[in-house]
Design a protein that fits this description.
By secondary structure, the chain is an alpha+beta fold. It has helices at 60-80, 128-144, 163-176, 186-193, 196-199, 201-207, 248-259, 277-291, 297-301, 303-324, 336-353, 355-365, and strands at 17-24, 31-38, 44-51, 102-103, 109-114, 119-120, 214-216, 225-228, 234-237, 244-246. A hairpin with a 5-residue loop joins β2 and β3 (44-51).
């Protein structure tokens, strides 16, 4: 839905006089607007104004606290390296009272950022080189936050990648069978049950202390990295609502799931679903070029596994929603979530067939061979 944003603008510390605005990112979780202000000398100041979706993010104040802490840390890290952070990090524009957001009388939460100019967030992977550069951007983001105390951050979506809890939710849905669909899903349910232990390996390693808790992005799609229009280099990681404590493996695995598949996640031609090893290698190379010296040996050893874990987790989430009657994900057809689940299961199966090759690629770019 469209919002009347003009009454909101005086609540923020924008520089200059308001000139114009346009809505961007239609259909995304948060309503987003591009603002243009004019300074007395004629130069522009550009900003983003966003309404936080409080249905998805139940603790918007925690979300904004996380973002403020992380972006300030990244900004200081760039400054310490002598790098101008202006276009390298989102900065929260404070309200007139110095707050991180403006809360309306109707309990809508609005926030503002600087607008990253001269850069593009691509929705599709144009080439392995582009995927490699996006990976380098995500790797740099994690590297700059290596010394940030992850425990200081809130879980913006509790248990987001806690696969053991998600498996319990899945089993509860199977037992409840709210939409009467379980009778036709024996093969899919068996597929997930057979991989329960595999899906829980990262969570188990985190809880046992074998993996370090890090600051993670948790939504590492290619369109969450701004690419400089002139240089083609990744300059800024965006969409920070899901930044929270987790494992670096989550970011790697989700990027491979979403970016290195041969077809999109709701393609019904399951025989064409697979992992593109050229793209897998491109992302692995870019990611490890920034973070190989920071990751522990066990993290590196589990990188290839993380792609299977996150993909299988996503298959389980789609199937759970289908069993529940399609309550969470938007669907275009009655079987949309089932198609998505089967697509992701086919991707897991192909990753299993190519797992030794994936591990060899990781070892190569981690300098282990």
């Amino acid at each position: 839905m469209a919002y009347d944003i003009l009454p909101l603008l005086p609540h923020f510390r924008f520089e200059g006089d308001f000139d114009s605005y346009s809505e961007i990112g239609a259909g995304n979780i948060n309503a987003t607007y591009h603002l243009v202000y004019r300074l007395p000398d004629g130069h522009k100041r550009e900003y983003l104004l966003q309404r936080i979706n409080t249905y998805v993010f139940k603790d918007p104040e925690g979300v904004m606290r996380n973002i403020d802490l992380v972006t300030r840390h990244v900004e200081r890290a760039y400054q310490a390296k002598g790098v101008d952070p202006t276009r390298r990090v989102l900065r929260v524009i404070p309200t007139l009272e110095g707050g991180l957001f403006h809360r309306t009388e109707t309990d809508d939460y609005w926030r503002a950022y600087n607008f990253i100019t001269g850069a593009t967030a691509f929705d599709h992977i144009e080439s392995p080189a582009a995927f490699r550069e996006a990976a380098r951007g995500f790797g740099e983001f994690q590297r700059l936050l290596t010394d940030f105390p992850a425990a200081e951050l809130s879980e913006t979506i509790p248990g987001f990648h806690h696969t053991a809890r998600r498996f319990e939710t899945f089993e509860a849905s199977v037992q409840a069978d709210r939409a009467g669909r379980v009778k036709d899903l024996a093969e899919e349910i068996a597929f997930l049950r057979a991989r329960k232990d595999m899906m829980c390996e990262i969570v188990s390693a985190l809880e046992a202390g074998r993996l370090p808790m890090r600051v993670t992005h948790n939504d590492t799609k290619i369109n969450n990295v701004m690419i400089d229009d002139e240089t083609g280099r990744a300059i800024c990681v965006i969409d920070l609502d899901t930044v929270m404590p987790g494992s670096a493996l989550y970011d790697f695995g989700d990027a491979i799931r979403s970016g290195a598949a041969t077809v999109i996640e709701d393609d019904p031609h399951f025989d064409k679903v697979g992992v593109d090893l050229t793209l897998f290698e491109a992302f692995t190379e870019g990611f490890l070029s920034e973070i190989r010296d920071i990751l522990t040996p066990e993290e590196i050893d589990m990188l290839a596994l993380s792609a299977k874990v996150i993909t299988c987790e996503q298959a389980m989430r789609f199937l759970t929603d289908y069993i529940d009657g399609d309550l969470y994900y938007k669907i275009r057809t009655p079987d949309h979530n089932l198609v998505r689940a089967r697509n992701q299961m086919a991707l897991v199966a192909d990753m299993e067939r190519r797992f030794d090759q994936m591990r060899a690629i990781v070892s190569k770019h981690a300098g282990q061979v």
